[in-house]
Amino acid sequence: MQNHKIPDETVHRLPVYLRELLTLQEQGIEKLSSQELADSLGCGCYQVRKDLSYFGRFGKRGVGYTTEILIREILNILKLNVPQKAALIGIGNLGLAILRYTGFGKYNFRITAAFDSDGKKIGQIIRNITIEDIKKIRTLKRRSVRIAILATPEAAAQQIADELVEAGVTSILNFAPCNIKVPKNVQVRNIDIAMELACLPFMASE
Amino acid sequence: MQNHKIPDETVHRLPVYLRELLTLQEQGIEKLSSQELADSLGCGCYQVRKDLSYFGRFGKRGVGYTTEILIREILNILKLNVPQKAALIGIGNLGLAILRYTGFGKYNFRITAAFDSDGKKIGQIIRNITIEDIKKIRTLKRRSVRIAILATPEAAAQQIADELVEAGVTSILNFAPCNIKVPKNVQVRNIDIAMELACLPFMASE
DNA sequence: ATCTGTGAAGCTGTTCACAGCT
DNA sequence: AGCTGTGAACAGCTTCACAGAT
């Protein structure tokens, strides 16, 4: 029930539990067992209990979990109990889609800064966010933005990543279709749609 | 060097190797060692060799790998040596970004069908693809499309997923912010940007 | 009786060390 | 000498079985 040596997989499943719990809560479910949550997710109830057990005891033996409490606890664990600010870099097709997406609020995330290098885009306001010149990335430090979503073309990605690190960013969600190199105290999560697609034909054939 | 019992992680790394190899090839690199590829990717050379060893012997001892051969072999393994067709469902912000993206061709992927339920979008042509009525999903069977990219809102996702399975789709890349249930012979890969973001604050704090 | 929390067993994936080619 | 390919050791994650709480 305590710190360090928490599987990475566990951390990645917590948001999925959270998403499902929020949905179940909307449906009026106030209490549930690990079995019920697991069924709803299509995973094992052992998995759910083990994952939660790394962080504390949130259920009652013989009874189960209270939806609301579990949601609050997972928000706490993930540090989503406090509002999280994120910067978005690269307002192309994908960047624009992300900027317009309204589903982050549930998780206490807000995109508070958006950057592009294209003069025609700079100054435009989208969802209350003014697109800024990419040269202003360094201002993220004093605006205490520690999370960045990188949605630039490949050619710009590494340089921007360096600038983000320089500006004090500690986590990068990288949508650029390439590897980026960062100091090892900086978290990077890569999402390249082509990479995901490329696995499918093999996987479908066992 | 042969079949079955190939780690899932290995399959997911192959496209990443491929992407890097294509980049290195563009830079004029015709031969490389597992060490060089690993350095370029920021992973271990053991990993690269072990992953490849599940599928065959593609290098020469004492020498290394030929970029071109390795690219071709990985394309073969992933079945990307033949053109792969994908359908896109949901032409919202994200769907539109995916439809406009031109980076899939490198991996022999082409989006050959796009669907939406919005009458204003149906009939529009984007990148040579005519957006069709979502009611026509069943035609995917005779058009032999086995891969679908699901980019609908949450509310529609499960029903569309059912229709896709019904239409013979065997792999779904799911961008809808929810779980979808499918028969277990159907592959699903979930990408929810909010889920990825939600891990970051915790991970940044170790 | 029921359901959680958890040590231990079992399994899967990674790292290593080195044999085998070139 | 240099680099691949791979069995074996190791590490990490998942599943299990059950003790403990209600």
Task: Describe the structure concisely for a colleague.
Chain A is of the alpha/beta class and 206 residues long. Chain A has helices at 8-26, 34-41, 45-53, 67-77, 93-100, 154-166, 193-204, and strands spanning 31-32, 65-66, 84-89, 109-116, 125-126, 129-133, 147-150, 171-174, 187-190.
Question: What can you see in these coordinates?
Answer:
The structure is a homodimer of 206-residue chains. Chain A is an alpha/beta fold and 206 residues long. In chain A, 39% of the residues lie in helices and 18% in strands. In chain A, strand 5 (125-126) and strand 6 (129-133) form a beta hairpin. Chain A starts with 7 loop residues before the first helix and ends with a helix. In chain A, the strands form two sheets. Chain A has a seven-stranded mixed β-sheet with strand order 5-6-4-3-7-8-9, with helices on both faces. Chain A is globular. Chain A binds a DNA duplex (22 and 22 nucleotides) through residues 1, 5, 7-10, 33-35, 44-47, 49-50, 52-53, 57-65.
